[in-house]
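Reviewer 2 asked us to include a model.

Predict the structure of this chain.
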Amino acid sequence: MAVVADLVSALEFEQVEEGRCRFSNVGLGERGVVFGGQLLAEMAVAAAAVDDSGTKSIKSAHGLFARPVLVDEDMDVTVDLLHGGRAFSMVTATVWQRDRACARGEILLDQSEDDLIRHGPDAPDVDGPDAALPWGEPVDGREIRTVGGVDILDAQSTGPAEVHAWVRTPSAPDDLVVNQALLAHATASFVIGTAMRPHAGVGQS
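Predicted model (C-alpha cells):
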C-alpha cells in the first residue's frame, strides 16, 4: 500500500536544465508501470514551477498517456510555456523515459483574484462526507468517501456514469500546488470505473 508521504515525495524533482526536470517514482505503481494519475500530478507540478512569480496555481490539467512509464526508472518532464500572462499561463508538459515521449499534458495556471463575473453549473446536491461511505482506499493517509456508497469495483453495481466523492488528505503539506496535484492523482482512480458503471458485469476490478 502506498502512503501519502510517498506520493508527496514522488512530486519532488531535480532541475536538470531549463525546461527539463527529473522525477523518481519511488517504487509507486502497479504491474511495473506508473499510474496515470501520478504522471498527471507530476506534469502539473512541473508546469506550475514555470511560474516565476510563484503566485499562480493549477486551474486545470489534462493528460494523454501513449506509452507506459516504468516504475523502476527515473523519468524526465519537459515543459513548454505556450503563454505566460498576468492572469493565466498555459504550459505543455511531456513525460520522457528512455528518450521516448510517453505522455503529454496541458496545464492551465491562473492567478487567484476576485471574479468579475461567474457562471457555471450549481454544485451537486448530495449528502456531506459524514453520510458518505468509505471507499477501498489504496493510499494510506488519504480518505475517500463515495456518496451513496457507490462501489466502482463491483461489476454488478450499475448506474449512470457519474460518481460523487469526498476526498481529503490530512497529512499533506500546506502547499496549494501539491494538494491540487494530489487531488488529480486521487480523481484519476475513478475515471475507468465510472465510465463502466452503465454496463452490467463490468467493473473496475
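Residues 193 and 204 are 5 Å apart (CA to CA). Helices lie at 4-10, 36-48, 176-188, 191-196. We have added this to the supplementary material.
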